[in-house]
Specification:
Layout (H helix, E strand, L loop, with lengths): L2 H25 L4 E4 L5 E4 L1 H9 L9 H7 L2 E2 L11 H17 L1
Antiparallel strand pairs: 1-2, 1-3
Helix pairs in contact: 1-4
């Protein structure tokens, strides 16, 4: 990957993770960083997913389990369980860079 493109990708990923962590600190719900169709990252929680389904932006069959399997990063639950391990976080980060490079 081009070094300039890699820096841009890193900054995009870092900004999304900071947004997810800030939102999680604010209200405690779990947030997911997922790719959008236009090449950007979106930070969602369960309520946002419900709104997307109601407006038919995503399939009505999409669940939080689908978000969990396709996200590049997620925060822990409100009670503190379910945080990403370092190994999984590194794997997902590399998957993000591969996704970004394929755009």
């Amino acid at each position: 990957m081009n070094p300039v493109k890699k820096v841009k990708a890193y900054l995009m990923f870092r900004e999304a993770v900071v947004k997810a962590n800030a939102a999680h600190a604010k209200n405690g719900s779990r947030y997911y960083v997922v790719p959008s169709s236009d090449g950007k990252l979106i930070v969602l929680n369960r309520d946002d997913l419900k709104r997307l389904r109601m407006k038919h932006y995503t399939s009505h069959k999409t669940t939080t389990h689908d978000l969990l399997s396709s996200c590049f990063y997620h925060t822990s639950h409100a009670n503190g369980t379910g945080a990403m391990s370092d190994e999984v976080a590194e794997t997902r980060r590399q998957a993000f860079f591969e996704w970004f490079d394929s755009l």
